[in-house]
Amino acid sequence: MNVSGAQPLNTALLLLLLGLSLLSLRFGAAPLSLSEVVAGLLGSGPETQQLIVQQIRLPRVLLAWLVGMALGMSGAALQGLLRNPLAEPGLLGISSSAGLGAVLTLYFGLSALNDWILPAMAMLFALLATLFLYGLARAGSSNLTLILAGVAVSALASALTSLALNLAPNPYDVQDILLWLLGSISDRSFADLRLVLPFVLLGLLLLLAAAPALEVLALGEAEATSLGVNLPQLRVLIIFGTALSVGACVAVTGAIGFVGLVVPHMLRRFVQYRPGQLLLPSALGGAALVLAADITLRLIGTPKELQLGVVTALVGAPFFLALVLRSRRDML
């Protein structure tokens, strides 16, 4: 894949991401200066500062990177595969299905058997939702049908999650299930990072491997096949890549929506609308958006810290409505 055209954009997004990471390490209940943050990272500052930076804020920053990269790249890959500008893990019900798998694992106590059961169930449910939606796309369904089916999948997963919440036997189960309803990266540790890191990295690698074929697929399936693109292999890469990366993140953070919709649309023009070159910028941009939203909710002076999923929904829902209205005008 030729990435030279996207290289300046990737460099700019990486610098933005690094800057936001430093800001995230600074702000919180105990604000720190930049020098204190650096000293805490290097282990040369007071023990309290080292604890705050290394054990409380750094895992949160790194998890924001993973979640944003998974959602951003998955959204761009799904839009390229389905050739649908409205495709996105949250909108199509993939995130909520992964959340349902995680909630059922908690509800029936399966997570106590092994730490790996939770992300495995989340990825399995994400895979099932992705396969269902892709089956509709393969059957020749219109964009509208696909979006409505995604909304239906999301609604069903949310309803089953709410049912589990309603039937939860004790308040502690209710609190755990609410995590997947609201989405959050606060109070996470390096143990959570180690749990999801291999799955997210493998998923991102699968999606990146699909980039050259996505470039050709933009010409149409018939043209792509004639140029040597293995379409079944491309579909497997994107479906499993999305299920692994998004499912693993949801197992730890809950459903965080609209990142995969907003970021590719913001960056597509900078890569000349080439779906293959959009993947890496969408990953970096997704990480930057999640990190910026997380910093914002910590700076807002509310009695209780807002949840990340609420903030991204407040940003993404109007953006989605604007896209729908623009698409309607284009059809007239």
Number of separate helices: 14
- In percent, how much strand structure appears in the residues? under 5%
Level-2 CATH architecture of one domain = Orthogonal Bundle
**pLDDT under 50 segments (min length 5)?**
none
Structural shape: globular
* Total count of strands: 0
Mean residue pLDDT = 86
The top-level CATH class of one domain is: Mainly Alpha
Helix-strand topology string? HHHHHHHHHHHHHH
End-to-end distance? 37 Å
Major sheet summary line: none
Helix content bin: over 70%
CATH topology of one domain: ABC transporter involved in vitamin B12 uptake, BtuC
CATH homologous superfamily designation of one domain:
ABC transporter involved in vitamin B12 uptake, BtuC
Rounded to an integer in angstroms, the radius of gyration calculated over CA atoms is 20 Å
Multimeric state: single chain
Structure classification:
mainly alpha
